[in-house]
Amino acid sequence: DKRMAEVIDHIGHVERKVDTDLFSAVVHHIVGQQISTKAQETIWQRMLSALGEVNAETVLAAGVSKLQSLGMTFRKAEYITDFAEKIRSGAFNLESVKHMSDAAIRELSSLKGIGVWTAEMILLFCMQRQDVLSCDDLAIQRGLRMVYHHRKIDRGLFEKYRRRFSPYGSVASLYPVSYTHLRAHETVL
Questions:
Q1: pLDDT per residue over 13-51, tens digit each?
Q2: Of 96, 77, 97, which Cα lies nearest the Cα of 85?
Q3: How far apart are the first and last CA of the chain?
Q4: Using one digit for the tens of pLDDT, what is the confidence trace for 82-129?
Q5: Are 21 and 62 in contact, with CB atoms under 8 Å apart?
Q6: Contact criterion met (CB below 8 Å) for 131 and 142
Q7: Rounded Cα gap, residues 68 and 74, in angstroms
Q8: What is the rounded CA–CA span in Å between residue 182 and residue 185?
C-alpha cells in the first residue's frame, strides 16, 4: 500500500510496550478500561506496590475491597478477582489461549470485564499477534481516516483495509495511530 508505506517511512520504527505475562496483561487491561492512561498507570503502580506481583494468588489474597482501595471501581475489582478465581480453579486456561488462533478473542471475551476490543488489544500488545486490526478501535479508525482522507470508514471499507493489510494488520494498526499523534503534535507547533 503506497500511502501506508509513506506513513511508515515518515514515522520510522514504532516502539511499543509488551507485557508477555498474560495474567497481568488481562488485569492491566481491565484496570485501564474507560480511564486515562495516566490514571491506569497510577492504579497499576499501586497494585504492584501493594501486591508485589500481580498473579491469581496475590489478587485473591488481596480481595475486592483491597483492590478497590487502590483506585479502581468495585466492578473492576470484582472482574479481576473473578478472573483470578477462574485461573486458580482451572475453569479458565491461559496456556491454551496462548496457542489459539483468533479463537483467543472469543475465549478472552468470555471473561467478565473483557470485550472484543480488549481481547484484540491483549492479542496485539501481549501475545504479539501480527494480524490484529480492530474495527472498534477509535484511534485506528481516526488514523485510517486521516491517512486515506475519508470522512467516515464504515464496516465494509474497514474490511477492505483489513484484507489489504493482512497478514500484517498489527503493523497497520500501529502506524495510523502514530500518524494521528504526530499530526496533532505538528499542528501544535
A1: 888 778 889 999 999 999 998 899 899 999 999 999 999
A2: 77
A3: 29
A4: 999 999 999 999 999 999 988 999 999 999 999 999 999 999 989 999
A5: no
A6: no
A7: 6
A8: 5
